[in-house]
Design brief:
Blueprint: E1 2-4, H1 6-12, H2 24-33, E2 39-41, H3 55-58, H4 61-74, H5 88-104, E3 113-119, E4 125-130, H6 133-151, H7 167-179, E5 184-189, H8 193-196, H9 199-209, H10 213-223, E6 227-229, E7 232-234, H11 247-264, E8 268-272, E9 275-280, H12 283-299, E10 311-314, E11 323-328, E12 331-336, H13 338-351, H14 360-378, H15 384-406, H16 409-418, H17 423-430, H18 436-440, H19 443-446, H20 451-456, H21 462-470
Parallel strand pairs: 3-6
Antiparallel strand pairs: 1-2, 3-4, 5-9, 5-10, 6-7, 8-9, 11-12
Helix pairs in contact: 2-10, 4-6, 9-10, 13-14, 14-21, 15-21, 16-17
Length: 471
Amino acid sequence: MKATERGIQKHRQLPEGGCSQRVSAEQKEYARACAPPRMAETDITSASGLRTRLLEPILDPDNLYQAAKHVIRNKGAGGIDGMQVHELSAYLDRHQEEIVKQIQEGNYRPKPVRRKEIKKENGSMRKLGIPTVVDRWIQQAISQVLGPIYEEQFSEHSYGFRPRRSAHDALKQCQTNIQDGYTYVVDMDLEKYFDTVNQSRLLQLLSETIKDGRVIALIHRFLESGIMVDGMFQESEEGVPQGGPLSPLLGNVMLNECDQELTRRGHRFVRYADDMMIFCRSKKAAQRTLEKILPFIEGKLFLRVNREKTQVANATRVKFLGYGFYRRRGEVRMRVHPKSVKKLKDKLRSITARSNGKGIEQRKRELNQLIRGWINYFRLADIKGITAQIDSWVRDRIRMITWKRWKRIRTRFANLKRLGIKADQAWQWANTRKSYWRTANSPILRTTLTKDRFLAQGYISLQRYYLDQTA
């Protein structure tokens, strides 16, 4: 790898054609963002890797059409302008040519993103930035063109937000690494990764591959478009707002530098978005790896490592993508991490709360949707026992709701008789003074509202669905 002074000049020049030197604002913006002190000439920055005219394929009508279809299909909330996804097609029919011309002339200005916060399982808040529907469309068009280019560069050990790769692939690779004897891990935690990305460094990395200054400038304008928080504008001088189609790609571009460095040093690792584990054969090796990689992440990429959450530990004691690992008869297997089980039960508890105002069909629909999604994600784990326990608990929750819904003694008596209970016993049970929860756990309802009855009514059993998926 050799340093070259020509790299500086390359990054200061705008490409010929399309966006000329006369556009001074574009030139200044591009030069400010993409002028590193020295650039290293690699395969990526060599002449064979130049991409000098990328705006044209981005603005190609077919690419824009596919981007619009993708945005509409993904639905999602609107941005600060109030436009909803279903309004995009009609809007583009009237304004697409105007927007394309603005982008070609370098005059398009994205609107600020709308701040939305969602609660994470550790109690902290994840900050999302929701772009307007039109900005989302343009970002999607950019991502469709740049994605295949960067796929050629991304590491085989990176799995997040990439085509034909999934969290399950990342987990299986972790399982293989542990089985091969790499039993200690550096569990790396990047502090508020998307909110702390250094934009100048990111644009520098982009400019090593993208030689079309118009595209770099357009991405830069998306990064600095600002944030609307409770009606107040805030500048976005750092970070990549989560919530737009371009954010996952930009996040991978930044962390690809870390991937390549770990590969150069010969480490086994698995990364899914900003969740990363580096596998080592011993605790000392893992500690040494952590000490040596920290200066690169913090000094070269300008990212913040959460020292309190980053740990060196046995692989069986860490949580990765909601899973845990354990050994059984010499074989490394997967389990659902206790925190993931607790998170599921919290969601189930919310859906089956007695006073949430949900109707029977709505509650059933939400329960079934949650169960399908959870099992499809955690089907790699050994969860036959856990699903049986949760099934029983959920049925008791539904029994509790049903008993409360019956309310009056007369209604309870009639329903118990309809379910096959003799009149004298039904009257006795209908007059019980037990609480809702105690009644749900008593023979009064367990012998009437049975497992088979719930299945017949359309409720999905976690255990049965899990067994069906893993058969």
